[in-house]
C-alpha cells in the first residue's frame, strides 16, 4: 500500500498542491495523510496553557472535514495529522514511514519558494514530489521521464518511484554521463534497463550528451517534449551546498519545472 502525504497549511482551503496530492493518492489507490503544523504564536512559552493549546485543538477538529474532502475525491483511506514543531524536522520524521511526501512550490505559501522547497528536500531524507502551485491538469502518471546519471541519489529516486512507474504507460530514461565511481569495478556494471526489466517496466532510453552545466535545462526541455506527467531524478548529485549555492540540475528544476518532480536525495 502506497503512503502519500502532503503539508496542509490551511485545513479550510485546499491549495493546488494539496489537490494534486489528493488526486495522486486517488489515482494510485494510495492512503493519504494531511500533515498540519499550526503556526506558533510569538512568545509561546509566556502564554497561558489554554491559549497555547487553542491552535492545536482547532486544527485537530478539522479531522472529519479533511476526511470528507478526501472521500469526495475518491480516497478511501485518509488520515489527518497535527504536529507541533519546525516543519523540516516534522517532514524528516514523517518520511521515515511515508513513501511520498508532496511539497507545493508556491511562493505565496510559507515554505513554498523554490529555495525553501530545496531545504525541505534536503531535510526530509525521503522521496518528495514537488508540485507546482499552478498545476491544474487532471492528475495521472502515464508519461514519466527519468533523469539518469548513475548516482546514488538517482538510484534511490528510481526505487522510490517504482509503484508509479508500474502504472505508467510510457517511461523514458534520459541517460547522461555516469557519476557513481563506486560502481566502476562492478562486473557486470549496474544497468538501469536491466533493473527496470526485472520489475517488468517497459521503457525507452535516450542518450544525453549535454555537459553537466546544462543538465537541468535539458531535463526540463525533454520533459516538456514528452509532455511528461512526472520527472524522476536524484537531488543534489554533487556537494549539496555547492549545487544549491552555485547552480546545478536540482536548482534549475526546482525553480523552473512546470510539472511535478519526484526527487530523492
Automatic annotation (TrEMBL):
Which Pfam family, an example, fits this chain? Answer: Usp
Q: Which domain of life is it from?
A: Bacteria
Name all UspA domain ranges: 142-263
Q: Which Gene3D superfamilies match?
A: 3.40.50.12370
What family, per the record?
Answer: Belongs to the universal stress protein A family.
Name assigned to this protein: Universal stress protein
Q: Which organism is it from?
A: Dokdonella ginsengisoli
Amino acid at each position: 500500500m502506497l503512503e502519500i502525504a502532503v503539508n496542509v497549511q490551511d485545513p479550510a482551503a485546499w491549495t493546488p498542491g494539496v489537490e494534486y496530492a489528493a488526486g495522486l493518492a486517488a489515482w494510485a489507490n494510495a492512503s493519504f495523510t494531511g500533515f498540519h503544523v499550526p503556526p506558533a504564536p510569538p512568545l509561546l512559552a509566556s502564554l497561558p496553557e489554554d491559549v497555547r493549546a487553542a491552535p492545536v485543538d482547532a486544527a485537530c477538529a478539522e479531522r472529519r472535514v479533511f476526511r470528507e474532502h478526501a472521500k469526495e475525491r475518491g480516497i478511501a483511506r485518509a488520515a489527518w495529522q497535527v504536529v507541533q514543531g519546525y516543519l523540516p524536522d516534522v517532514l524528516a520524521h514523517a518520511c521515515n514511514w511515508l513513501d511520498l511526501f508532496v511539497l507545493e512550490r508556491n511562493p505565496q505559501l510559507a515554505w513554498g519558494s523554490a529555495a525553501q522547497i530545496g531545504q525541505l528536500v534536503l531535510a526530509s531524507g525521503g522521496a518528495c514530489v514537488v508540485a507546482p502551485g499552478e498545476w491544474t491538469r487532471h492528475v495521472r502518471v502515464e508519461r514519466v521521464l527519468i533523469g539518469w546519471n548513475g548516482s546514488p541519489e538517482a538510484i534511490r529516486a528510481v526505487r522510490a518511484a517504482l509503484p508509479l512507474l508500474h502504472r505508467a504507460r510510457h517511461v523514458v530514461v534520459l541517460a547522461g554521463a555516469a557519476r557513481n565511481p563506486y560502481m566502476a569495478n562492478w562486473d557486470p556494471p549496474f544497468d538501469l534497463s536491466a533493473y527496470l526489466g526485472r520489475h517488468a517496466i517497459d521503457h525507452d532510453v535516450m542518450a544525453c550528451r549535454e555537459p553537466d552545466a546544462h543538465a537541468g535545462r535539458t531535463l526540463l526541455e525533454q520533459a516538456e517534449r514528452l509532455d511528461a506527467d512526472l520527472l524522476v531524478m536524484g537531488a543534489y548529485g554533487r556537494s549539496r551546498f555547492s549545487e544549491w549555492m552555485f547552480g546545478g540540475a536540482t536548482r534549475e528544476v526546482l525553480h523552473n519545472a512546470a510539472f511535478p518532480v519526484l526527487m530523492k536525495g
